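[Automated response] Your request has been received and processed.

Submitted sequence:
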Amino acid sequence: FPIRADSAAAAAAAAEASLSDGIGGPSSSTSKQRSMVLISGFESFNVKLYRRAARNLKKRLPDVSLFVFSDRDLETNRQEVLRALQDAEVFFGSLLFDFDQVEWLRGAIEKVPTKFVFESALELMSETQVGSFEMKPSPDGRKAGPPPAVAAVLKKFGSGKEEDKLVGYLSFLKIGPALLKFVPGRKAKDLRNWLTVYGYWNQGGLENVETAFYVVAKEYLPGVAEIEIAGEDLLSHTEESSNDVFSRIKKVVTSVVGGHLGGTASAPEKNTLAAPKETPPIGFYHPDLEERKMNWPTTADEYEKWYQSRAEVLSDDSYSKYTPPIHVPLDAPTVALLLYRKHVITKQPYLADLVRALEEAGVRPVPIFINGVEAHTVVRDLLTTSHEIAQRKMGNMEIDSLSQGAICVDAVVSTVGFPLVGGPAGSMEAGRQAEVAQAILTAKNVPYVVAAPLLIQDIKSWTTSGIGGLQSTILYALPELDGAIDTVPLGGLVNDDIYLTRERVYALAERLKKWTALRNKKKSDRKIAIMLYGFPPGVGATGTAALLNVPKSLEKLLESLRCEGYDLGLEEGTQVPSGEDLVEALRALDDGRVVAGGVDAAQKAVETLRLAKQEESSSDSSKDSSNALHGVSVSGANVTPKQLKQWLTFPETWGPTQWGPIPFLPAPDVLVTRMENAWGSLDTYAGLATVNGGKGSYVAGLQIGNVFVGIQPALGVEGDPMRLLFERDLTPHPQYAAYYKWLQHTYQADAVMHFGMHGTVEWLPGSPLGNTSLSWSDQLLGAMPNVYVYAANNPSESIIAKRRGYGVIVSHNVPPYGRAGLYKQTSELRELLSEYRDAPSANFHALAGSVFDLCASAGLDTDVPFVGQDGDAVRVTSETMVLEEVEVAAEVGDGGDEKGHHSSKDGDEKTPDAGDEEKGSSSKTVKVKITAAAFDAYASSLFTYLGVLENRLFSEGLHVLGGAPSDEAASAYLEAYFGQGLCPETIQAVATMRPDDDVESVRAKLEKQYGAGGGGGGDAADGAGADSSSSPPSSEKLEKLEEAVSIRSLLRRNTEELIGALRALNGEYLAPAAGGDLLRDGPGVLPTGRNIHALDPYRMPSVAAADRGKKIAQAILKQHRKENDDQYPETVSVNLWGLDAIKTKGESVGIVLELIGARSVKEGTGRVARYELIPLDELLPKGRPRVDVLCNMSGIFRDSFANVVGLLDDLFVRAAAAEEPLLKNFVKKHALEMSADGLENTTARLFSNPPGDYGSMVNERVGTSEWEDGRELGETWASRNAFSYGKGGERGAARPEILQALLRTTERVVQEVDSVEYGLTDIQEYYANTGALVAAANAAKEEFAEQERAKNGGQVKQFKKVRCSIVETFGDYTPRDLDETLRLEYRSKLLNPRWANAMAEQGSGGAFEISQRMTALVGWGATSGFQENWVYDGAHERYVADEEMRDKLRKNNPQAFRNVLRRMLEAAGRGMWDADDETLAQLKNLYSETEDELEGVKTRP
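Generated structure:
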């Protein structure tokens, strides 16, 4: 049958596909004569309807009992369901998707002879058996197909467009039964019955559903008695002469199928089924129509005419009993509202409430109901926009099927969710038709919003724990692939009914109004608020963002805004203010003395700075500061406690109607109460950023015409270690809330732009996913459109900004890549090794000592140790080595005697006899014998290591928003991407190509330069590395050249970053794109300037990611066994982070699965449905155990991949229950041990922060130096990560005892690093989580050892410290030890002059980046114990001892430079660095000078 012909067509059987169709309960019927069983899945709202249908059917067919169950009964009432199925002759299933339930049902219904399954998992739908018609694939694997006549006719349905195929299938359902009258054979009859039943089912409603069951009973339960019920008849007794109708159908069919048709048509039956009570497949809904029982309009013209005239119609006295119409303002935004058709059919009360609430809020909805699969056709053909109308007038016809009567709308809101193309039926092929959706939405160019009640999740769980599982995928992940923004959950289930929470409808309406007003307002009148960041405070962070040069980017944005017509208050020809000057002014506003003085002091501070800049300009002719801060003023307020309370208080009139059936009814001042509980009385609060004299909270920023530039307030948790340790609800402090509320209410920003990665408002407490009015991010952002500039390579954190912060993401590129190269000692060492390799025998004695000394001074002997004769690593220097004598040719040169011997040192010193060492010596130095062969092997290892170090990539500098890369930078991108795949000449030619060049022109250029007679060798002309002067290039080489040219062209389109920002600020649709980076994800991440999204969580891990994860886990186990006498670890802790999970498509999950010994099981659509245990005897290597895994989840992973969390939790439960030996199953072993200790839920293995909260807070403690030792930081980490997550109700339960038990058995920590841009030393999160986890595990082991000593007496038993494996997934996947990776990172970045100089050239932002890495260096020492002198020595030499560098950092960002000095002094004070007295004195003096200068005391000329 065609609807099962392939997976897409299979989903067409689910074409109605409302995941909104419900859950029933057991019927009260007890008849045992003939029985049918109905199990409904995701349609809880139809429970009552199905039970009524079952009762009515019993009256008509007393021998038949229809037992109604819901999918919930499969969990709570399975035995009763099984008993019913054992006696059933017919099974009816609808909307059943849960994998475990489906697997159980397939076995339970095996012997049921007749099975109808609609709109469910493919595996269950394949069980359909209706007489001779079935949907099972044939024995040869081919899927079941339709009779040829049906197949031929099917091709005639639909528009002919691929994306409309499923819509065509729905059209076929209506004519299918009539068509099949002309197809002979039993199979055709059964197929006709199937279509007939589905036709009634699809139409929905009590009468249709009852008829569907009646047809099934009459056709497949022969002999059942029937009682005629007066006034009710399911048959149509017509004598109409419908022969003409049948003749016309036959004629059409014959013309289509020709010879396929066989047999003759039967005469029309006298007693036929009554036609289904039809609702149009697409129609226009309005509660006024429903209330008056009017027909649904089916065209836009028809609806518009009714809507425009309804005021006259409704004023008629005969309509006075009805709800009066709500008069929407003429200038209200017109918004298309896509609704589920089945909800209209079943008259779901929330629909009328939704439409009327929108109208009350000042929005004019155009409600259109659809089955689900037609969403794109409605948007494409029935809706238009002012943008599209204008484009069509200019001849740009992007949509060829637009209806002439299309309604002009300002936004499109879908309550369906899923992808726009395919809807629920297409969801299992997530993103399959994304390009079509983008083309449609780009043509319309208005906001596309998804807002819907939760149809498979209850309101209580949403408001307490957030939206999770499949519901989050339907509402967020899948629509985001199409570019959906501002998702708002509108309500959810209470028992089996759908309820709205009206406050969410109001929130939606306000957002729609703001977006429309933004687009309609003249650009010169728009007020834009740009928020920069300054966190953490006091270390030069003002005006910085990860990977972005904020001051230069801000300049470019301001220039673009002015060119677009925004009012910046500047005279024509005047330059926009310097970005660095603006940042300096913002730092001045943030000064503690200015804050205390309030807005008046802020104005004086900026004026003082302006005058100082002018004075500086006049005294130094090389500096032009005469125009500094021209046109810049201060805007802000001292927000009083009274005003803040008013802003945070809900209307007194709000009650159950507005809040909906949430678990509690909030008081109007609930937010004020929460804030006062956290920070004290607002009336007396004098803490963070408050103005002296009780004047309230300080809010100030810079005003440049209609553009406001401010600094996002600090969170306010630093400096309070006890709060960091125990606080679960980090409620924002008063000034934080006052700032955003001032932007909303006083400044009245038309839009806010968060500038770079990333701010904090989206991370504030509230529902983890699915904001409510009690979520702080929702409350503080209000309805302001939020345009968020974000790094393209971070789809993980950007989805938090998108989902919790309503951010329209505008992606920007990452900086160009650089190769670390070699410098100083490593460069010198390379030269020595090269010289040695030229003549090993001759140079052994001459160079060995220098090689060993350089290795020791550079710390390389730790990473490349010399292995002595006993197999142990030994430290060797020129003072300790004893070289063997070797013979070399006499002509080798100096240093040899006439016999060709070399002495061990300089020829004058005799090598000590080995026997002298054995007899004892007055020297305490231990001599090490070095053979020529051993040194040669060591030199080879060193050379290899230097090659690795030299070729390590890093981000070189910072990116400027909208800045196309120079030829040099383009060359760096291409070289990093292709590596050895393209020769340098080709890369150079592509990098320098002109904008209008193509592949052929580049090839011609190469041919001319390097072809026959050229000087570049033979391999450049074809773009790769082979002789091409006489032969054409291979297709593979051409493909690489074409890819390189494409990448170069895409990089030029970095300019679209500014275009994207301007489009977003114009309220336009911004095309979506997958987030990622060029090196890992390829050219698909380009161009930037698009609205990035993540991936479908139901496909994690991908096949490739699972394979890579498996190999990584095996390598980690091999590494561990090598270091631990061939023993396997009992517990490994794996960090599950959202960023690496998204970018690697689930490698870290693959690692977990392999450690446990499990694999993914996929359902027919390709979705991962379960992680199943692999039998022990299949695990490799043979005999290995299941390793227990502590999964430490980031808050993003926890919230974004709730389905994966549930599947992993289920896996741990089954692993603990497996009938296996304890020594072969450490999950089971540990679970039993914890149970013996009286602990509950001993299979809990997935831990994270409290619900709705993020971060370990370890970096905050390190940032303020509020810590004593690593154990204390480990305890902070443990206190913040003791919350367990899993399936069912396990959503953040505090289980510190379980966590501690797992930490005690943890032997290794695993951390993936997913990109070049974010290494271990680049961001604070790595030491704050990975390092702190190591500290927590060591602390747990130490505490346990102390407890054992106290219990048993004696000494504390020594415990083996936790090891940590780092896997850089952008490299070769080889696990490296944590300290080894840190050394590689510090050599290639912080200490590397190329990295340092590139960063220092980036102004204040570059200085801050250097400063942050010094903080991270201390953080690693604090948590993991990484404390190596050569790193601190090198950092001091690079950033302090070097006068030019020192002055540059000091000038560009004195706060950042002060932090560099502070961290060095702190490291020395804590014993991490053995700095000499002279160095410490210099540091202290510089620190004092810098402090004075920041306080305004001039200490230098």
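Summary generated for your ticket: The first helix runs from residue 7 to 12. The chain has 60 helices and 43 strands.
If you did not submit this request, please reply to this message.
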